[in-house]
Amino acid sequence: MSDTVISTSLTGWAENLPGSLYLYTAVGGFLLVILAVALWLLIRKPKSQANVSSKNTTTLSPLEHLPVSVSAIYDKIASVGGVNKSILLAGAGLEQLPVTIPVGTAVQLAQAGKKVLLIDLDTRRNAAAKVFDLNESVVKNCARPKPLPSSVDNLSLWPAEFFVRFGQMNLRTVVQSAAEHFEFILIYAPYLDGHPDRKLIASCARYGLIFCKTTQQFERLQKLLAQGECRLLEQKAISC
Asked: CA-CA to 124 of 20 to 30 Å: which in 2, 5, 40, 151?
């Protein structure tokens, strides 16, 4: 009887075996799929990180490093034609027109092969000279004011300190003389809205861009530049 029970049990197990094999095959196949996906992710992850690292070390052109506002300003100024390309960067205040704007634009023009003179009217800080790290002794030892070469090829600077030391100096004369030697003359006037000589300054440039935040500031500067026959390159305010 024992042999009969064992034989019956073995027979039942043998009959259930095909169904069990299908189950084991399905489970095994599922596990293989999971394993394959895990291996693919492990292989792909370092590659992705390598791509990111490669992108981070890619060298961009100088223009691509600049803020969008500077890039747009550069494009507008670079497209100006004619001989007397004097451009007034007219600001309602230092926050609206930081020194990085004229400096960045001037550097880009110079790197494009244009001879550029940057005239700094920020007499409160003499900021442009500090940006280009011009030696104070070089500026102070100038018996006569003249464009000073910067560390960037094709770019010269007229420091704001000259307007303090040589009080009788006329901006119009400076611009007219510079037009014979430079393709672009950028006049940096961050405080034009409240400058005592704003009418004279506005009349010294042929083109202008206005940097401000409020409609009232723009209307005042727009009227000022129109009176000085300074043509706007952009018929709206630029906010940095």
From this structure: 151
